[in-house]
Amino acid sequence: MLKRFIPVVALLAITTSSGNTAWAQGRADFSKPIEISADRDWFDVANKIAVFEDNVVIRQGSLTIAADHLEVTRRDDQSDSFIAQGNPALYNQLLDDGSPISAEAEIIRYDQDQQLLTLSGNVKVSQNNSVIQGNEIIYNFATQQLSASRGEKDRVTTIFLPKNKSDQSNEPTNR
Domain residue spans in the chain? Predict the structure, then answer.
């Protein structure tokens, strides 16, 4: 069953502000409608809550999120809070330059009012030539800052891979 639920801001709206940070791209997606499909859904209109369960897929332009459970809450100030859970919940999007970004976490939370994206539990974010892993990664849309923290036993890991040798822009320039 496909339902359209169009809140003010999409789950994981990676930002509509200007800037060249990795997560500040993909802006064209956020002017498109949000489609949420799931095996089951229910709405508590009085409390402004929508719940989607089992095989949840969220699509908005090139942005796709797959999760086991999604809860969307509309606050009195009309801001929305989204919580996607999965084993893991998966996020994929094509950025403005056509390069993909992907993430996985047990919980993906977006708070529109605070402009915070929080990925929790076995988090892995991959983009181009880099990967960052940790127990929790928080991205602040307002400040365009990212912080990562470790779990009880693990450390945060960041890997920057060299550009592919076939990439012409990576060739040295002879003068």
Answer: 2-164
